[in-house]
Amino acid sequence: MVYGSEAPAKLPKVKTEAEKALSAVNSLESLEIIGKLLYNAAVQPKEEKFRKIKLSNGKIKQTITDVPEALNLLLTWGWERETSDGEEFLTIPAGKYMSMKDVRAVEDQKNEARKQAHKETVAALRVKS
What transmembrane ranges does the database entry give (predicted)? Predict the structure, then answer.
């Protein structure tokens, strides 16, 4: 309810653990891979190959396993660590599904990372001149 010219108070948005974990990932390359993994899992949720990530895979190791924030993000979203035949995997447990909302959140974070990278490039160019 608004009285006179007073505007209603806006409460600050409280970030969820997943939102905090996502905002901690600044690697554009990691966000690209996470976006693809989530998209595939969201679009084809029953396809087993999209519900399991082999952590020793070269590209996955470089962009997720070796980037603690990226690995933490997937764990926060419900992926679980699993070992099978001496190999480590991240899997989406039965009954858990990724959503397009998650995919869009990664896209938004990618845009933020691009903006930040652009700002840093501009600042570096200004220092050189």
Answer: none
Which amino acid appears at position 105 of this protein? A
SS3 77: coil
Average pLDDT value for residue range 109-127:
89
**1.10.287.130, 2.60.40.10, 2.40.110.10, 1.20.58.2190: which CATH number matches 20-128?**
1.20.58.2190
The answer to pTM > 0.85 is: no
Q: What does the pLDDT look like over 4-57, one tens digit per residue?
A: 566 666 777 778 899 999 999 989 999 999 999 999 999 999 999 999 999 999
Separation of alpha carbons 89 and 54, rounded Å? 5
CB 70 within 8 A of CB 28: no
Structure tokens at 115: 């903006």
Measured between alpha carbons, how far is 23 from 46 in angstroms, rounded to an integer?
Answer: 28
